[in-house]
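> @MW can you paste both from yesterday?
MW: sure, first one:
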Amino acid sequence: MRRVKPSRKTASIRKITELAVAAPQVVAIRTARMLAAGAHPGATDRAEFSLMGREKIAAAAESMFAMAAQMVKTQQEYARAAALQWWKLWTTPWLFGAYRPLVQTLASLPQAALIAVPTPTQRRRAVGKLVEAAVTPVHKRATGNARRLGKIKKR
């Protein structure tokens, strides 16, 4: 049987669902460790709590950077589409319009009102890519922590 690659939408939903399951697990495990450590945590607990803070800052920074990079890509795609539309408008041979009625000439040109306006489909895809970029670093950290902290240590 042939394996089907999941769509971007399916992959995003899967990541968000995994994040919704992993994050409460990590919070519960770390909260229990904090309560068990009490007022004077040991070296292992202090290292884990320090790691927790660093990971949160790193994941937030990565998420913001990924969102900014995706926004730049989206803006470049929109600018390219607008430039191509304007290029098409200004490279259309106006000379040939002299041999037919003005109404036909104007109808054959791109409509100026529609130039450089993203379609609803393009906007949905852009938002989906933005969400994917934002969730990926947080998902990676949360699921990794859930696997690492969920392992039962044998004594």
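MW: second:
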Amino acid sequence: MSGVLEAIRRGYDLWGRTILAFLSGIGGGSVRDLIIGGDRLPFYYTLDYRYPLGIMSVVIVTSAVVLRFPGAAESITFKRVKLYSDIVGFAGLAIAGAIYAILADMPWFWVPALAALTCAGGGALRDVVINQEPHTFKGVIYEEVALLGGIVVLGGLLLANRYEHSSLPVGLTVAGSVVLVVVTRLVVSRFKIRYPASFGGGEASDH
């Protein structure tokens, strides 16, 4: 949705909106899978039509809503829905990226790295296409939350290995990590926590 709205704001046509939506939605996962390789190729969305169909649905529905209600994208309700859906989706992608890295037997340091890349890689690719500096490089705390989630998943699953007779620790680790990422993102957003100016934290801007 963020890709579609950015495209609409820039006056892009339906094709441009679709490209930005795909970059935002699956760009990070694509880069992640290129790094992992092996069973992650060919890309998951080429094997399951639901991914591209879902993205196209978001493009069409969002475009229709904005066409019917030109001011909808600037309304408080719409922005809240976008924020909360982004936070929940962010948490799911971060933990999924960490788990895929673990399942692929990647070195431990790739676990938080791929958690962050899965979340933010698509947005960075989108910003490259529209010739815009990534907001998260300018003081916004974003990928750092995914790094935290990846580290917690890694630590939790290492601990769960001691209780191989039960799947409960694994489930608690995954669920707890998702909740931690969601809560952390909410706190960062609610209190507008940013890097200090000396570390690149300038004026606040929406991601």
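> thanks! The mean pLDDT is 92.
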